[in-house]
Amino acid sequence: MLSYPSGMTVSNRALGLLADALRAHRNQRATRWRKLTPGRQALLVVAYLRMGETYADLACGFQIGTSTVYRYVREALALLAAMAPTLAQAIDVAQAKAFVILDGTLLRIDRVAMASGRDRPFYSGKHKAHGLNVQVIADPVGRLVWISPPLPGARHDMGAAREHGIIDAICDAAIPTVADTAYQGAGPAVAVPQRRRRLDPDTGRYRRLSNNQREVNAAHARRRGPGERVNAELKNWKILRKIRSSPSRAAELVAAVQTLMITNA
């Protein structure tokens, strides 16, 4: 089997964090000799997350067995997921910001049962694809603050945010938040764009927004822009572009990537 070198962008800080966690885990368990050092195992796991490499490709590149790759990845994902912040910790961070940006995004999946309508909860009509809904909180300069556990993709952003307790937490802490129109009615702390006015009964058309309202919407969009960059950065981790594992394991995957993204920031 032939192999070739490849490259990926990830900070030494993220690699060091994972390598230190793996080293401490091995010492705690008094694990016997392993094929890869903690540093090499950390590199393997980051390659899996960042590049979306298959177990077979990683086994070839690191010259170990496919089952060993699986064990190494599962071990590291559990450690990274345990280090991910909770919503309460994220709210503490958000309180130190001028404002935060709340947005939802869809992580596509391919392993979903199609029989008897079991795929329905995962199908997003907006995106015309099966996936998982995650809620993302970012700061004004586009740094990640928190990612929610995933919910089935059919869930509306507002419903998902309420189920995770994000709306109540933001309003209770009075954190200024900007969001899109999906979060209409979230409360006084959440600012959303001006919506088109109702139908004009005389013409049967929507009444246009005034010039002032359009200017407000443009300013709102500029404030919301860094949150879109966080969503794009999230999907730069290729493992999340289309999740091949069971949706039930996606929460651990998202939490692991979240830990590395916050460390990279």
UniProtKB/TrEMBL annotation:
Pfam families: DDE_Tnp_4, HTH_Tnp_4. InterPro entries: HARBI1_dom, Transposase_HTH_dom. Its cofactor is a divalent metal cation. Residues 34-85 form the Transposase Helix-turn-helix domain. Keywords: Metal-binding. Transmembrane segments: none annotated. Residues 102-260 form the DDE Tnp4 domain. It comes from the Bacteria. This is Transposase family protein. The lineage of its organism: Bacteria, Bacillati, Actinomycetota, Actinomycetes, Pseudonocardiales.
